[in-house]
Design goal:
This protein is α+β, with helices and mostly antiparallel strands and about 375 residues long. It has two domains: about 170 residues, no CATH class; about 180 residues, no CATH class. It contains 14 helices and 14 strands. α2 packs antiparallel against α10 and α10 packs parallel to α13. It is elongated.
């Protein structure tokens, strides 16, 4: 029998106890995998934000509009290479529960500023030619089975048309994919001019501006210049880097990082106590056996490795099963919930999980292993 086989047989000697302990570890790593994947999905917009992109919003609140005349004035600021604008639509498909991230854009500049959005040239040209054209992110297209050429009605819970209808009908001109899997494609976009001409209120206003800078080293100066340009006006502005803007937007939903830390931390402390107690009990029950092993030639170091190996294997089995289950669940969520289409268990999360498995195995097995290593043969064999 090899050393690894001995570890495995000792571990599963008490099958029920080992199974319950594995289930506890499994649940802890399942929770960690799902929450960490959710956090990674929410932070994707921050991580992928362009260093050369700035966002300009109304200083009072980003939901308030600004005059469209600001676009040309912003474009004239030294260091600004390209400016586009967008306006929130508040859309849904058929029923309010089918929420859509929908906004009206300044077509060509917007697509130029976001190179991570992949759109075939023919579809781009079709969108630019069709005032009622609609660009659909792949996540939305997959969720509703939409394809290029379809004609779809989209309702708004904010805006109304001049004829008092809350429904705009669009022709799907193209489907946008991401340059990499973490790029969020859960959105639809249409032309601002069509939106402006048909809505009943709002006039010549836009929701926010996106600008590309020629040199990221000039970002701080450009942000100051833009906000100074509109200071003391009825529509003062606040300019941030795209990363800062996305981070502030996410934090409106709560500090997800702290939630993950507290929940996972509580779960792991509980598991440390459970597994640690299990390993101490295991060593106590096998005191005589350990003494026999020492008698037939097992060194103290080898006994130490045997007990610690059981603890490491226990953590590895429960942890790997938990991570695999988290991967399957997050993949299913990404496929069924369009707003979480980028939710996936990343390699970084998996690496962190394996580090936690190693720490769990080490922390729960260290004291029992030291105790087993120091068992006195004569005393142990004399116990009844």
């Amino acid at each position: 029998m090899t050393f690894l086989q001995l570890i495995r047989k000792n571990l599963f000697r008490k099958k029920l106890r080992t199974t319950l302990t594995v289930v506890s570890i499994f649940i802890a790593f399942l929770i960690f995998g799902i929450l960490a994947s959710f956090q990674s999905s929410m932070n994707a917009g921050v991580d992928l934000a362009g260093a050369d992109r700035l966002i300009v919003t109304n200083k009072i609140n980003f939901t308030l509009p600004m005059p469209i005349a600001y676009v040309a004035r912003t474009a004239a600021v030294p260091g600004v290479q390209r400016v586009a604008h967008a306006s929130w639509f508040g859309g849904y498909y058929q029923e309010p529960r089918n929420f859509l991230v929908a906004f009206a854009i300044d077509p060509a500049p917007y697509l130029d500023i976001y190179p991570e959005y992949i759109l075939p040239p023919a579809q781009r040209e079709a969108f630019l030619r069709d005032r009622t054209g609609l660009l659909v992110g792949k996540a939305v297209a997959d969720a509703y089975g939409w394809k290029v050429g379809d004609r779809v009605p989209i309702k708004s819970n904010i805006w109304r048309q001049k004829n008092k209808s809350d429904t705009w009908t669009f022709n799907i001109s193209g489907i946008i994919t991401g340059k990499e899997t973490r790029v969020d494609t859960n959105f639809v976009m249409f032309q601002y001019e069509y939106f402006k001409e048909t809505r009943d209120v709002g006039g010549d206003t836009v929701g926010w501006m996106i600008l590309k800078t020629a040199d990221t080293k000039e970002n701080e100066r450009i942000m100051r210049d833009i906000d100074a340009l509109f200071a003391n006006s009825p529509f003062e502005t606040e300019t941030k880097t795209e990363q800062a803007f996305n981070k502030a937007f996410i934090e409106m939903m709560g500090d997800i990082g702290s939630i993950v830390l507290y929940v996972v931390g509580a779960a792991f402390i509980t598991i440390l106590l459970v597994v640690g107690n299990t390993m101490m009990l295991t060593v106590r029950e096998r005191t005589n056996e350990i003494a026999v092993l020492k008698t037939i030639g097992f060194t103290a170091q080898r006994v130490f490795a045997l007990v610690l190996g059981e603890s490491m294997l226990l953590a590895l089995i429960g942890g790997v099963l938990g991570v695999l289950a988290a991967f399957l669940i997050t993949s299913a969520i990404a496929q069924s919930v369009s707003v979480l289409a980028t939710m996936t268990l990343t390699l970084d999360t998996a690496i962190i999980a394996f580090v936690l498995m190693a720490l769990l195995g080490l922390l729960t097995g260290l004291l029992p292993a030291i105790r087993a290593m120091n068992i006195d043969v004569v005393t142990a064999l004399g116990r009844k």
